[in-house]
Amino acid sequence: MAIIKASGPATVTRRPKGVHKHDVLLLKEVHILLERCIRRHMSRAEALQVLDSLGYDAKFCDFVWSHMRRRHPKFFAAYEEALKRAKQQLELEDDACSSARR
Fold it and tell me: Which long-range contacts (CB under 8 A, 24 or more apart) does 63-67 make?
């Protein structure tokens, strides 16, 4: 499993009324960490598992992922398709290796 480290706190100049600075910083931090997971070709489940292991609330991280997905539906559709194809390719390679050993 890849190790994802949180970077320093993000700077925020404006935030909606009633939203605490800590909440905005946490949102940005989780967003950045999820982007790092995406760059490492992790599935949603893998990314959430990594962030959970780092002590981030899984439901909150899932909320952020869902928000990112809603804002960029074309990207995520292509990303999920690429992950699916990569998984199928690995399965084919595993089957080929298993057949060669027999």
Answer: 64/27, 64/30, 64/31, 64/34, 65/34
Two tokens, residue 64: 């952020």
Q: What is the rounded distance in angstroms from the CA atom of residue 28 to the CA atom of residue 6? A: 11
Tokens of 26: 């946490």
Residue type, 25: L
The model's pTM is: 0.72
Q: For the chain, first and last CA: distance in Å?
A: 30
Digit-by-digit pLDDT tens for the chain (102 residues) are 455 555 555 544 455 566 688 888 999 999 999 999 999 999 999 999 999 999 999 999 999 999 999 999 999 999 999 999 998 988 888 777 776 666
